Structures are given as C-alpha cells and as structure tokens.
C-alpha cells in the first residue's frame, strides 16, 4: 500500500502553508505585488486540500485549520482588489493618486491585521505538528482517495457550470471559479501526471470576471461616499465589461 492519505495531506498542507507565510513577510506597499499574490495562493491551496479531503481527516482538525487559514487569507482581500484596480488600464489619470491613497490606507490596516493574527499562525503550526491519524482515513492510500476526490470534483464542476449558465448570476459563476480552482490545485499538488494548464486558463477567465465584479463593488461603495465624475465613468465601464464577460462565459467549456 502507498502512503496513507493523512500523511500525504499533512505534508502538502504544511509545504503550502510555510510557503505562504514566507511570502507574507515580504509584502510591501510600493514594491512587487507578487508576495501578496503568492501569500494568498498558498493559503488557498491549503484550504482547498483540507476541504477536498475533509471526509478522510479528523473533523475537528480539518475544521480548525480551514477556519484559521481562511481568517488569515480574508484580511488581504481588500488589498488585492485595490492592487488590481490600481493597474486598470482604463483608470483616468486624475484617479491615480486617489487610488494610491486608498492603497496606502488599506496597507496600514493589513499590516495591523497580520500582526493580530500571530496566534492564528501559531495555532496552524501547532496543528501541522500534530498526528493527523484519523478513523476516517483508516488505512486507505492517498492515491485511492485522490481518485475518489477527483471524480467528486468533476461532478461538482459540471453541476456548477450548468447552474451558472442557467441562472446567469454572478454568484454561481464565482462558485464555478472556485470549483475549477480546486480542480487545478488537485492536479497540481496531488496528480502531477495530469496537465492543469487548461484549468489555469479557465481560472483566469473566471477570475477576470470576478475582478470586474470586485472592482465594481469598490466603485459602488466609494461612489456612495462622494460624487466624483471618474467614479461614475468607471461604473459605466465596469458594468459594460461585466456584461461582455458574461456573454463570453456562456461559451465556456470546462472539460
């Protein structure tokens, strides 16, 4: 029998988490935005593995890790959205300094939030050092369980694609994006013999739509606070972009 599922998962989650935290220490305001991106990706990979294989892990362990890692990821959401907005090619010159000021304010809040998460990081490292043996995992091999997980992921992707195409709701497209992302991470981390480049392209297409929706939410929020003309113009641009992207997503093939 090959490596047990709990052991294989523990190794992969720890590797992804340590890589994420290493990138977290490199996050800065005026330099490269890649450290923040990789911090978020590393944490997402951890959560994806824990959720995909949750049925074969001790429930209390998996739930505690998912909750803590999720909390560590969410504090960076706003900063990431503003990073994307700052790079938007349609952003008028008059808005550049204003967006930069929002980023500075958000970065200050992010640093405070990351500092306050010290205990959460300590908790995760402590749980990563524990034994992950579980009655749920039994003596099943990692490969056998991974085959089951892969089939489950495929069914979920198909179901969510049909749901999104039928409803045309942004929420359903976002759920599909998460499922595609999980499928990619599963291949990348647990099924290296499979090509995940197509999943990456799908994830990028769905991610662009998600970015447009996130930027629109920011513009809506700020537009309610002041009536600058560029905010109204940006809202029109983003609404048009969202409609165009929705039309393109309707032709999406996920196989």
Question: Can you walk through the features of this model?
Answer:
The chain has 255 residues and is mainly alpha-helical. The chain folds into two domains: 1-138, Four Helix Bundle (Hemerythrin (Met), subunit A) (Up-down Bundle), CATH 1.20.120; 141-255. It has helices spanning 5-24, 34-52, 59-74, 77-86, 93-116, 118-129, 142-167, 170-190, 197-225, 229-249. Helix 2 packs across helix 8. The longest helix is centred in the C-terminal third of the chain and has 29 residues, at 197-225. The radius of gyration is 20 Å and the shape is globular. The model has no long low-confidence stretch (mean pLDDT 92).
Write the layout of secondary structure elements.
Blueprint: H1 5-24, H2 34-52, H3 59-74, H4 77-86, H5 93-116, H6 118-129, H7 142-167, H8 170-190, H9 197-225, H10 229-249
Helix pairs in contact: 1-2, 1-7, 2-3, 2-8, 3-6, 4-5, 4-9, 7-8, 8-9, 9-10
Note the main attributes of this structure:
255 residues, 78% helix, globular, single chain, Four Helix Bundle (Hemerythrin (Met), subunit A), mainly alpha, 10 helices
What is the compact description of this entry?
The protein is built from 10 helices and no strands. It is mainly α and 255 residues long. The radius of gyration is 20 Å and the shape is globular.
Give the helix level as a range of percent: over 70%
Beta-strand proportion: under 5%
What name does CATH use for the topology of the largest domain?
Four Helix Bundle (Hemerythrin (Met), subunit A)
CATH architecture of the largest domain: Up-down Bundle
**Measured distance between first and last alpha carbons:** 31 Å
Q: What is the CATH top level name of the largest domain?
A: Mainly Alpha
Shape: globular
Low-confidence stretches: none
Helices, by number, come to 10
- Whole-number tally of structural domains: 2
Could you tell me the radius of gyration in angstroms?
A: 20 Å
Helices and strands, in N-to-C order?
A: HHHHHHHHHH
The major β-sheet equals: none
In round numbers, the mean pLDDT is: 92
**Tally of DSSP β-strands:** 0
Structural class from helices and strands? mainly alpha
InterPro entries: CHAD_dom (IPR007899), CHAD_dom_sf (IPR038186)
Organism: Ferrimonas aestuarii
Protein name: CHAD domain-containing protein
Domain CHAD: 1-255
């Amino acid at each position: 029998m090959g490596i047990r599922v709990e052991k294989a998962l523990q190794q992969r989650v720890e590797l992804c988490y340590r890589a994420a935290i290493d990138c977290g220490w490199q996050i800065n305001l005026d330099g490269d935005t890649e450290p923040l991106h990789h911090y978020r990706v590393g944490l997402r990979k951890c959560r994806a593995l824990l959720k995909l294989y949750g049925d074969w892990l001790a429930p209390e362990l998996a739930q505690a890790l998912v909750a803590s890692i999720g909390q560590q990821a969410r504090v960076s959401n706003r900063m990431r959205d503003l990073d994307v907005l700052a790079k938007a090619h349609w952003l008028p010159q008059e808005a550049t300094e204003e967006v930069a000021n929002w980023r500075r304010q958000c970065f200050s809040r992010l640093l405070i939030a990351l500092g306050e998460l010290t205990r959460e990081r300590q908790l995760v490292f402590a749980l990563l050092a524990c034994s992950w043996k579980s009655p749920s995992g039994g003596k099943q091999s990692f490969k056998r369980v991974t085959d089951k997980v892969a089939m489950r992921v495929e069914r979920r992707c198909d179901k969510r694609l049909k749901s999104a195409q039928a409803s045309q709701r942004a929420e359903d497209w976002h759920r599909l994006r998460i499922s595609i992302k999980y499928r990619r991470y599963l291949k990348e981390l647990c099924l290296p013999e499979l090509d995940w480049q197509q999943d990456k392209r799908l994830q990028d297409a769905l991610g662009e739509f998600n970015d447009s929706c996130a930027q629109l939410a920011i513009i809506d929020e700020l537009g309610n606070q002041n009536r600058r003309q560029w905010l109204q113009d940006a809202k029109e641009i983003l609404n048009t972009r969202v409609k165009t992207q929705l039309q393109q997503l309707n032709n999406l093939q996920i196989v």
